[in-house]
């Protein structure tokens, strides 16, 4: 007998496949790092000086998750829908006020992800000093490939990260160019949140972000981590 008495069926728990397994990774929260590659910060008109600045974060609702390979409708409310290719770090342990040395025990695995963005709405919010939710935390905006258990990869410090649209190269960089690397991000983020198994972190995008249109096919690759793809459908 159930002890609960919901007024409607609760939504399914968002989750992602685990590569090479029939198991799934339940997703608790989605954190995203802003401006974590210098060339992307510059193209957004907001250069980063690591000596005087700290990383910053926004979140997406776990219900925004979409698995790699999906077709999503061109979203409502925008005429400037952008891709952002990112390394996703999946958290597998509890951690609060971590040091950088704690990073290895925190990482369950990695995935290739797309932080899809309504750029026009994000920039309006940014200029007005308002929250980014309309630009970032919208339906089907967090695209993620199956999570590859970290295993021998340990804490990733390098590896090519690329994105193509319809086969045309758009983004090409290396994880070594992250302004704040993975241990630094985990140490910093955990000053503000109790990290928990099921949290995933989009670590930021390199330069070359840009718009997509209905019919476009996005494909991304991260060396040793995997691939992510997305097809843009017609607007609803
Ligand atoms: Mn991003």
Question: Your description of this structure?
Answer:
This protein is mainly β and 236 residues long. The protein has one domain: Fumarylacetoacetase-like, C-terminal domain (Fumarylacetoacetate hydrolase, domain 2, Alpha-Beta Complex). It contains 5 helices and 18 strands. The strands form 4 sheets. Strands 3, 4, 5, 8, 9, 11, 12 and 15 form an 8-stranded mixed beta sheet that branches. β1 and β2 form a beta hairpin. Manganese (II) ion binds next to loops.
Structure characteristics:
Fumarylacetoacetate hydrolase, domain 2; 8-stranded mixed β-sheet; mainly beta; 5-stranded mixed β-sheet; binds manganese (II) ion; 35% strand; 236 residues
In short:
This protein has a single domain (15-233), classed as Fumarylacetoacetate hydrolase, domain 2, CATH 3.90.850. It has five helices and 18 strands.
Q: What do we call the CATH homologous superfamily?
A: Fumarylacetoacetase-like, C-terminal domain
Biggest sheet: strands, sense, closure? 8 strands, mixed
Number of strands: 18
What compounds are bound to the protein? manganese (II) ion
CATH architecture level-2 label: Alpha-Beta Complex
Helicity level: 10-25%
Number of domains: 1
**Which blocks of ≥5 consecutive residues have pLDDT under 50?**
none
What would the CATH topology be?
A: Fumarylacetoacetate hydrolase, domain 2
Question: Strand-and-helix sequence, N→C?
Answer: EEEHEEEEEHEEHHEEEEHEEEE
Radius of gyration: 17 Å
What characteristic shape results from the CA principal axes?
Answer: globular
Quickly name the level 1 CATH class: Alpha Beta
Mean pLDDT across the residues is 97
